[in-house]
Design a protein that fits this description.
By secondary structure, the protein is an alpha+beta fold. The protein contains 8 helices and 6 strands. Helices cover 33% and strands 15% of the residues. Strands 1-2-3-4-5-6 form a 6-stranded mixed β-sheet. Helix 3 (59-66) packs antiparallel against helix 4 and helix 3 packs parallel to helix 5. The longest helix has 15 residues, at 14-28. It is globular. It starts with a strand and ends in a 14-residue tail after the last strand.
Length: 221
């Protein structure tokens, strides 16, 4: 899974930008057959909005807006679509379906908590974001990134999410442990495996434990 927090479309490579825009157009136009065909090649795109994150509408938000068939929404969720994911204005797919009057989808779109974040979850996420800001230097000052929420980690028994950061030539992979968040900072410039961290509601620290496997190639400039 991937969290795309980049808001500057110019930071994407031309080929990647064209492919992502084509994918976003399919979802906007309710081309569900095209959507699932594309997810067959790029399953990690299931939670990605149009590059630039203007509205933050991911495929599940669009399906809720259109009032897609029950089977379409079920299939998106089976592909890993996050019911907790919010748009830029703070709405979940559930909220959008309710606003649009698509009541038959409400029960399906209700977020299901499979795992709980270490409590208090707000403190855990705050320290996670503090770690990201600390370890990226001035990357976030040079290029705006929307920082990832931790709520999607509650939707599956085991999930790894990649957050790529412009300026790092890499990014972070994070996953939920039994009572801790494991974070792996990695870059193509690293001579080794990168850096590993543990985050709790009390704070964060560097560790040699909790190794997360490296991710695929970065498609951003």
């Amino acid at each position: 899974m991937e969290w795309d927090g980049l808001t500057d479309r110019e930071r994407f490579g031309d080929w990647y930008l064209e492919e992502r825009d084509r994918f976003a157009d399919m979802v906007r136009d309710a081309d569900w057959n095209g959507l699932f065909e594309e997810l067959g090649s790029h399953p990690e795109w299931v939670n990605l909005p149009r590059p630039g994150n203007r509205s933050g509408f991911a495929p599940l938000h669009q399906a809720a807006w259109h009032g897609a068939d029950f089977a379409v929404v079920s299939r998106l969720i089976a592909h890993g679509a996050w019911r907790t994911r919010r748009t830029r204005d703070g709405r979940r797919a559930l909220d959008i379906a309710r606003e649009r009057g698509h009541t038959r989808l409400l029960e399906l779109l209700e977020p299901a908590v499979v795992r709980r974040l270490p409590a208090p979850a707000e403190a855990l996420e705050r320290h996670f974001h503090a770690l990201l800001r600390d370890r990226t230097g001035n990357c976030f000052e040079r290029t705006e990134h929307l920082l990832p929420p931790l709520s999607p980690l509650t939707e599956a028994p085991a999930m790894e999410i990649v957050f790529r950061v412009v300026g790092m030539m890499g990014g972070f992979t994070y996953r939920l442990g039994e009572d801790v968040l494991h974070v792996h900072g990695h870059s193509r410039m690293d001579a080794d495996d990168g850096d590993h961290y543990r985050v709790t509601p009390e704070g964060w620290s560097r560790t040699d434990r909790g190794r997360v496997p490296p991710t695929g190639p970065d498609r951003r400039r």
